[in-house]
């Protein structure tokens, strides 16, 4: 079975100071250099991760991000983000309430992450 979907969202904390918070420019162009300068909190054991974002008009950007903080748990990454220590990718269903309360802010409101495939492997039933 294969499912398509992208329910991850790059987010930042409301605690970031105005000069530290990321804002998309008025013409909705993504400044890749701005994204690369942010303090990323990642879930991978590796120091870098790739992020592909799709913007207005079909614009696509692929970035190689260096993480400042690396976690092995999404909850830890979320707590670091809420504390204003950087930005992270979070699953939308898990942060929907935090977004509604304004505790987390979408980093790129008009952009989406590239859909990822999810493959599920199950044992054969007729074996």
From TrEMBL:
Family annotation (InterPro entries): LysR-type_TF_proteobact-type (IPR058163), LysR_subst-bd (IPR005119)
Lineage, top-rank taxon, reads: Bacteria
- Native organism is Ectopseudomonas oleovorans (strain CECT 5344)
A Pfam family found in this protein is LysR_substrate
Similarity comment: Belongs to the LysR transcriptional regulatory family.
GO molecular function list: DNA-binding transcription factor activity; sequence-specific DNA binding
SUPFAM superfamilies, alphabetically?
Periplasmic binding protein-like II (SSF53850)
Question: Which GO biological-process labels does this protein carry?
Answer: DNA-templated transcription
Question: The LysR substrate-binding domain covers which part of the protein?
Answer: 27-126
Q: What is this protein called?
A: LysR family transcriptional regulator
């Amino acid at each position: 079975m294969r499912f398509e979907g992208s329910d991850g969202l790059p987010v930042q904390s409301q605690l970031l100071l105005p000069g530290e918070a990321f804002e998309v420019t008025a013409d909705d162009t993504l400044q890749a250099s701005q994204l690369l300068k942010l303090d990323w909190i990642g879930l991978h054991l590796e120091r870098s991760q790739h992020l592909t974002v799709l913007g207005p008009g079909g614009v696509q950007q692929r970035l190689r991000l260096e993480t400042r903080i690396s976690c092995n748990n999404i909850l830890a990454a979320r707590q670091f983000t809420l504390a204003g220590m950087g930005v992270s990718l979070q699953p939308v269903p898990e942060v929907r309430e935090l977004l509604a309360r304004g505790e987390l802010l979408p980093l790129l409101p008009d952009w989406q992450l590239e859909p990822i495939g999810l493959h599920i492997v199950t044992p054969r039933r007729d074996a």
